[in-house]
Amino acid sequence: MGIPSTASGLPRRRFLSGLGASALVAGLGSAGLAGCGSNTGRPGADSSSSASGGTSGGARPTLSQWYHEYGEDGVEAAVKRYAAAYPQAQVDVRWNPGDYDKLASAALLTADVPDVFEYGNGPTLDMIKAGQVVDLTDTLGDAASQFSKPVLDAMTWEGKVYAIPQTVDMQMVFYRKSVLEKAGVAPPQTFADLVAAAKAVTTKDMGGFFAGNDSGVAVLASMLVWASGHEQLNADSSGIGFDDADGYAAFAAYRDLAASGALVKSASADWFDASPLTNGETAMQWTGLWTLPDVQDALGDDFGVLPFPAIGANGRPAVPFGSYGSIVTAKGKDPEAARAFVKWLWVDSEADQVDFSNSYGTHIPAKPGLVPQATKIATGAGAEAARFVDQLGHAPSKLFTPALSNALTSALTRVITKGADPEDEIGKVAATARTEIARAKG
After folding, report:
1. Residue 442: what pLDDT?
2. For residues 209 and 263, is the Cβ–Cβ distance under 8 A?
3. Are residues 165 and 133 in contact, defined by beta-carbon separation less than 8 angstroms?
4. Which pLDDT does position 74 carry in this prediction?
5. How far apart are the C-alpha atoms of 284 and 297, rounded to whole Å?
6. What does the pLDDT look like over 376-423, one tens digit per residue?
7. Which residues contact residue 128 at a Cβ distance below 8 angstroms, ignoring those fewer than 6 apart?
8. Given this structure, which CATH class describes domain 62-169+322-394?
């Protein structure tokens, strides 16, 4: 589900696939996040509505549940319908326009907390360390094995699960089959293949690869890390995990692509809109799963999808994803009743989980076993996207703070635009990381 557009035209939630809530603002680069919704109602304004299904059988606890404002038609009615069907409590759904992350974080510091709320890729490390959220490991129990492991891992800290994933968004490479075939090149399996293919298909009218009007820096900085075979942080989370020859080479490889003439640096729309691909400005584009219906309508069967390809000898293909998770607050009116509701909705009620992913935009159920029931992604490119997430998916570490994310994108920008040395620039990121990680760990 998207949400109201930002100033740049990109629904805020879609940034979660790859950036994560903690890096949401800092990782946007030139796309920026000037606003989180078209409504500008005052923070804390009463937008709640009762989702009670009646009170037969005696008094039931009353719970409050918060959502951010999704952009697709029907989402608000759907989540209120789900809540109304819950027999064990009256669940009052509050729909929150505006800067939801700020509103939710601020509410947790007050006595008037929501009992259940959603947050991008689960709660922040600050929320966990402050004891503001409930450990849901036992609530999930054996059902943990039903969820995509990378997605559930994003909701986990030090072996404890703090949120139940609701649905998943992701990003990947879309390519025009006929254009690659005409040039005699196969769909790229490595980054070197992608560069070669981009050069082979580039003409005066069509570019080879497009990942954004900032040369792809905002969305691909972490992808270069993951595709080079590294994680954002090292094994003991004391520093970054890509301050080595493979990391330097990945930055250098992308710099070389940017200088080759095959990277489209300016298009009619930014990376999150498939128009550059569908109108023939580029043969390959990095964009999100949410564009799949537009691509299908425009190109029919003349497209394919790929993960970001492996970079270097130690690389691996990878994709980023994002998922809002349902969280129980520790200071709520009845945390046990809230845990039971979250389990009922996001673990047990699979028909609602499929509806939430499939009926309002194009998304992936958090449980791989439900993908065949989600008709928009059950086959073809959608099924491939679901497989990419489950097998190749990455989300930012909770220790990868906004300041650290900004340092990474700034470093890549200097490498591409100023010819800066990748080793020097990654060294600067490493220095920032030492400070940021120490601060975040407290």
Report:
1. 80
2. yes
3. no
4. 97
5. 17
6. 999 999 999 999 999 999 999 999 999 999 999 999 999 999 999 999
7. 157, 162, 398
8. alpha beta
Q: Beta strand pairing status for 164-175 and 304-306?
A: antiparallel
- DSSP β-ladder status, 304-306 and 207-210: unpaired
* Whether the Cβ atoms of residue 200 and residue 185 lie closer than 8 Å to each other: yes
- Unique residue bearing structure tokens 């969820």: 147
Looking at domain 171-320+397-441, what is its CATH homologous superfamily? Periplasmic binding protein-like II (3.40.190.10)
Is residue 59 within 8 A of residue 341, CB to CB? The reply is: no
DSSP per-residue string spanning 172-230: EEEE-HHHHHHHT-PPPSBHHHHHHHHHHH--SS-EEEE--TTTTHHHHHHHHHHHTT-
DSSP state of 148: -
State mean pLDDT over 13-20.
45
97 phi, psi to nearest 5 deg = -70, 165
Q: Which residues of 156-182 are buried (b: 16+ CB within 10 A; e: fewer)?
A: bbeeebbbbbbbbbbbbbbbbeebbee
CATH 3.40.190.10 residue window(s) in the chain: 62-169+322-394, 171-320+397-441
The stretch 69-76 carries a mean pLDDT of 95
Amino acid identity, residue 408? L
What does the pLDDT read at residue 441? 86
As a whole number, mean pLDDT of residues 219-239 equals: 97
CA proximity to 165, closest of 193, 188, 143, 192: 143
The pair of structure tokens assigned to 22 is 């903690």
**Do the beta carbons of residue 263 and residue 215 sit within 8 Å?**
yes
